[in-house]
Each structure stands twice: as structure tokens, then as C-alpha cells.
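Page 42, continued from yesterday. The earlier attempt failed because a stray header line got pasted into the input along with the sequence. Redoing it now with the clean sequence only.
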Amino acid sequence: MVVYKDVDQRWAIVALDWDGRPRLGIRWFWGNSGNPLSSGYPTWFVIPKTLNTQYAQRFSN
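This time it went through. C-alpha cells are written below.
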């Protein structure tokens, strides 16, 4: 689920299930790809657990 998307700066934060636990992930997007990529496939950078609450509070307002 998309938590926050900044179309002008082309990045997004999503809520995802990582290793059986709820986490937030972030990536930049443009064209048919973005960053980060792994073997040509889009991937998400998983935000460390200690920052999840801070990000969730920031984007819920």
C-alpha cells in the first residue's frame, strides 16, 4: 500500500510485509524503472525498524 508518493520528486514510501513483519519501504521512480534495482527488477529499500514510527507519523498528517 502506498503511504506517500511525491510525483514531482519521483519517490514513494509503501507499507509492505518484509520477513513476515510490517515495514516501510522507499524507492525513486522514473520511466519504466527507478532506483534501487536488482538484476534489472525494481526493489524497495526497507526502512530500518527504528525509523518506521517516525516516518509513519510524519506522513499520516
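Notes: Residues 49-60 form the longest helix (12 residues).
Reminder to self: strip header lines before submitting.
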